[in-house]
């Protein structure tokens, strides 16, 4: 089985046997079907597979389990699946959004809920009977708020207004100046506008935001809103498939959440305690590729020992429940 974790910045591919043995692994460029196109995104998988298995020719495996960014809608999953089948990499292909891999990697069962907050933010819930609740996750167009990119933009917005007098004073102005080495926030804004500074650097504002939230009201308000969004996404998805009334695991992933910032973690716990008192929150730190592999093993109807072998291979810290069991 060929497992794929396609992210915005990199694509991980693993060849895994039915007994859970990882036979080969490789890493390629980012998986970006929205900007580069479906064909170019699938090229990344093929190129990575070819590098990690020198001399091999398609088909590379009996089944492909690909869980990727950019597959936010079922029609996008279908297009990626069709392209993979057309390449002949395997005669059996399943493509899903990467939130499904997060859920599978962190939960003790193939069902539950998952919320990811990395560069973006998204959630999914899967009921024991297979019903699924998901979101378009198309940014502001589909009502989303948060994620590392959104948080960074909020920091810059508040810092700019504080500096020129349109908003309340905040230490976020200092965070912007120090992070980008500019004399003023305005200078940083202009540098981004003119292209003198890459927009990719915006994410550097997330870490100081979390640090300053403990003592700065403006920063705390941003973090509090993120906690509310993380809870809203998870509980709304759970409600849609009937998971609120009984115990349910909610897996939290993505760089912003796996950093386990004390304030953000506490605020998320409070939100879930009020909205979903039966939920158990789990923060997983295993690589996202693990979820894709486990989905692939599900398809192959592998033995329980195969799942244990995969987790042992990656040797990552086991996911843990948040304080208070929530």
From TrEMBL:
- Indicate what this protein is called per its UniProt record: Kinase
Keyword list, A-Z: Kinase, Transferase
Pfam families attached to this UniProt entry: BcrAD_BadFG (PF01869)
- Which molecular-function annotations from GO does this UniProt entry contain? kinase activity
InterPro entries reported in the protein's UniProt record: ATPase_BadF, ATPase_NBD, Euk-type_GlcNAc_Kinase
- Keyword Transferase belongs to the record: yes
Q: TM spans, by residue? A: none
Give the organism, scientific name.
Acrocarpospora pleiomorpha
Recorded superkingdom: Bacteria
Which lineage is the organism of this entry classified under, starting from the top rank?
Answer: Bacteria, Bacillati, Actinomycetota, Actinomycetes, Streptosporangiales
